Structure formats: structure tokens, C-alpha cells
């Protein structure tokens, strides 16, 4: 068996160990009629991440977790594959799939190397999942390989501001000053964080994202920098609603594979 890259092995252990903490959230999301996105629950009718009608489409969710996004796509008519690094998360996904009568193909694996043929999918998506837990220099080209010409990739993850304004020791809350350099921010290791120790995350500068997309063969369709709603309160992972109204803590990229 091929040895997993360090970040893949670390993140697998991390998510297998905490999957039980996400069961309730997964169940609530599976029950939703209309999707909501990200840490602030932005409504689908505000940011339009999914095609309204996915009848006849093949779709893949990269880093599906409990697979509620996969379920949303299947209910819109798509034939859906979900892949996740955590077997424990997939057990919840499989249970909820059976409970709701939604047919999904679920794969235990790494979104950087998906065991599927190229040119297989019309649509690919990641809400967090691969979007932050996989190395973009590996998973973005893999998503490109999986998509047919003209296919769409949508991914939502942490904005680079989150890493830049997070104290280096991993303590909460996030600050309103730069805590680390903008350049060289590719890999963020949270295993020794003071508050909420985690796994290994990835991000890029905006110029690095654009160079990667263009060099891989994608065209950029859209970029959304998410702002917390005016009525949002509390905090999410050390990020207060007030902070997230002044600075984006999430972004959404929409890309199209060039014909």
C-alpha cells in the first residue's frame, strides 16, 4: 500500500477522531430543503453555488464529509459521487443516505488522487473538504482531470485573511492585525494550536490561486468574498460576526474547464 502524504495521514486521523462532533450538523443539513453555505449559513438564493436543475449531470463532491452537499445535488437530479478522507465521516454519510433514500456513490479516499477516470464529471464542488484540507497544487489539477471540457468547479473555503490574522500559537480570537506574512502562507499546521488543535490546512495568495487556475487549464468565472450577514451574532472557530462583517473569512471560486 502506498504511504499517504503527511498532511493526508494527519487529517485522516484528525477527522476520524472528531467525526462524532459533526453528526448533528450533518443530520440538520440533510433535512434542509434549500442549501445554506459556509460558517454563516448564506442562502443558496443569494450566492447560487449549484445549478438549479442538475438532471442528467454527473457531479462529484471533493471532501464530502457527511455528504449533505452531495444529497442537495442528488435531489436536483444529479448522479453524485462523494469522496472523503475520513472513514468515520463516511459512515455517517452512508447512514443518512439510506435513511433519506438518496442514492450516492461514496468513496473512502484522498481528493488529491481520486480513483475515477478522467473526463467523468460535469460538475465538481467542495465546501471546505478538499478546499482547505488538501494541497491545492495537487487537488486543483485532479479536479481538472476529473471534469469534462466545459465542466464547472466550485469551492468554498477559508479566506487567506483568516490565516494572516490568526495568532501564530493558534489561540482565539482572530485579531484585526496581521499575525504572519502574506507570502509563504501555503501550509498552516494547527496540530499544536492553543485553542482547538486541528490538522493541516492549505491556502494561497490571490496571485498564486490565479496562476494555478490558469496554468491548470481553468478559466475563472467568479469570486465571492463572503461577508457575515447583518443579523449574524456569536463566533465561528474564533471568528466573531463583527470581524466577519468587516473582513471576509470565506471565499468561493467558480471555475470552468476550458474547451
Mean pLDDT: 97
CATH level-four homologous superfamily name: Vaccinia Virus protein VP39
User: In one word, what is the shape?
Assistant: globular
Unreliable segments (pLDDT under 50, ≥5 consecutive)?
none
How much strand?
25-35%
What is the count of structural domains? 1
**Roughly how many Å is the radius of gyration?**
17 Å
Main beta sheet? 7 strands, mixed
Structural class: alpha/beta
Intertermini distance: 36 Å
Q: Within the CATH hierarchy, at the fold level, what is the topology? A: Rossmann fold
CATH architecture: 3-Layer(aba) Sandwich
**Secondary structure: helix percent:** 25-40%
Series of secondary-structure elements, N-terminal to C-terminal: HHEEHEHEHEEHHEHEEHEEEHE
The helix tally amounts to: 10
Look at the structure and give the CATH class. Answer: Alpha Beta
Q: Biggest sheet, strands in spatial order?
A: 5-4-3-6-7-13-10
